[in-house]
From TrEMBL:
Protein name (database record): Immunogenic protein
Span of the signal peptide: 1-20
The keyword Glycosyltransferase appears for this protein: no
UniProt keyword list: Signal
Coiled-coil blocks: none
PANTHER family reported for this sequence: SLL1037 PROTEIN
Length: 324
C-alpha cells in the first residue's frame, strides 16, 4: 500500500495486537479511532498513461500538494479511470484521476463495475470537460441525433465509457442501440472508417480538440451533431454526472459553436483521508490554478468544481468550496 503510517511506538503496537487478539479485526478494532494528517508521510496520485493529460497534470498537482501539506506526494502512471477506482478500493493510492461517469458507475456497481460497487471513494472536485462529440462528415446529411437511426455508428467498446455515453444519449432521444447499426471501434478506427465511408458517424468522448477528429478534418469536412439544450437538460436530470458543453467555433473548421454535453475529469480520494488533509489538498489545487501550465488548466476553477459530480463530495473538499 502507498499509505505510510508513522511509527507510533511499541506501546501502540502491543495494544493493537491485543485488540486484534480480542477480535478487533483489521485496522486495530473500533478503539483505534480515525486517522489524522499526522498519520501520513506519503500520498500517491494515480493518473493515466504518460502520453495523456492526467499524468502531467498529476505531476503539477503532486508538487502543489507537497508544498501545501508538507506531505511528499507523487504522481503514478496507470491505466486511468476504471483502474484508478480499483486502486483506491484496494488502498494502493489515496488520490485518483477519474471521469465523473466512471466514478458514478463505480459507486453504483454498474457497467464495468458490475462485479461489485466501490464504496470507499469520495470526490474532491471536477477539473475539465471530456466532451461527447458525435462526429460525422458534412456530406452524410446527418444533422441531429434522431438522424442516426438506421445508420452505422461507432459507439466504442461494450462496457466502455464512450459506449455508456452513446447509450444514454440515444435513450434521451427515444432510441436504443437496436435503432442504429452499432460498431465497436476505437477513436483511430472511427476516423479511418468515417474517412473510408464505412460508417456514418462516431461517438467520441475526449477533450477537444481530439487528434483523431483533427486528422479526419484534414482530409474531409467534419460536422459535429448537436445535443439540443432541452435534451441536455433532460440527460443531466437523469444522469447527474453530465454537464452542458460545446465544441467551440474554429475547432475542426467549425464556423459556429455546437452545443453538446460532457462528462468531466475529476479527482477522487478515499473516504478515510482526514477532513483537514483533504481540505488542504483541495486548497492546494484550486487556490493555485495560476501555477498549472497545462492547457487544461484554464478549465480548473473552484466555482465550477462541483458541476457534474455524481458521487459524495469529501467533507474536507466541501468545507473548502463552502468557504469560497
Amino acid at each position: 500500500m502507498n499509505k505510510k503510517f508513522k511509527f507510533l511506538g511499541t506501546t501502540f503496537a502491543a495494544t493493537a495486537l491485543l485488540l486484534a487478539a480480542c477480535g478487533g479485526g483489521e485496522g486495530g478494532g473500533e478503539s483505534s479511532g480515525e486517522t489524522t494528517k499526522e498519520d501520513y508521510d506519503f500520498l500517491s496520485i494515480v493518473t493515466g498513461g504518460t502520453q495523456g493529460t492526467y499524468y502531467p497534470l498529476g505531476g503539477t498537482f503532486a508538487n502543489l500538494i507537497t508544498d501545501e501539506t508538507g506531505i511528499k506526494t507523487t504522481a503514478e502512471s496507470s491505466q486511468a479511470s476504471a483502474a484508478n477506482m480499483t486502486a483506491l478500493k484496494d488502498g494502493n493510492a489515496e488520490i485518483a484521476f477519474v471521469q465523473t461517469d466512471v466514478a458514478f458507475y463505480a459507486t453504483e456497481g454498474t457497467f464495468m463495475f458490475e462485479d461489485g460497487a466501490i464504496d470507499n471513494i469520495a470526490a474532491i472536485g471536477a477539473l475539465y470537460p471530456e466532451t461527447i462529440q458525435i462526429v460525422t462528415l458534412a456530406d452524410t446529411g446527418i444533422a441531429s441525433v434522431e438522424d442516426l437511426r438506421g445508420k452505422k455508428v461507432s459507439v466504442g467498446a461494450p462496457g466502455s465509457g464512450t459506449y455508456a455515453n452513446a447509450e444514454q444519449i440515444l435513450e434521451i432521444h427515444g432510441m436504443t442501440m437496436d435503432d442504429i447499426d452499432a460498431q465497436a471501434l476505437d477513436f483511430g478506427e472511427s476516423q479511418e472508417s468515417l474517412q473510408a465511408g464505412q460508417i456514418d458517424a462516431a461517438f467520441i468522448t475526449s477533450g477537444t480538440p481530439t487528434g483523431a477528429v483533427e486528422a479526419l478534418n484534414a482530409v474531409a469536412e467534419v460536422s459535429i451533431v448537436p445535443v439540443a439544450a432541452d435534451k441536455a437538460a433532460e440527460l443531466i436530470e437523469k444522469y447527474p454526472y453530465y454537464a452542458e458543453d460545446k465544441v467551440p467555433s474554429g475547432t475542426y473548421g467549425l464556423t459556429e459553436d455546437v452545443p453538446t454535453v460532457s462528462v468531466l475529469a475529476m479527482l477522487a480520494v478515499t473516504k478515510d483521508l482526514p477532513e483537514d488533509l483533504v481540505y488542504e489538498i483541495t486548497k492546494a489545487i484550486y487556490d493555485n490554478t495560476d501555477q498549472i501550465t497545462h492547457a487544461k488548466g484554464e478549465y480548473i476553477k473552484a466555482e465550477t468544481a462541483l458541476d457534474g459530480i455524481g458521487i459524495d463530495v469529501h467533507p474536507g473538499a466541501q468545507r473548502y468550496f463552502d468557504e469560497k
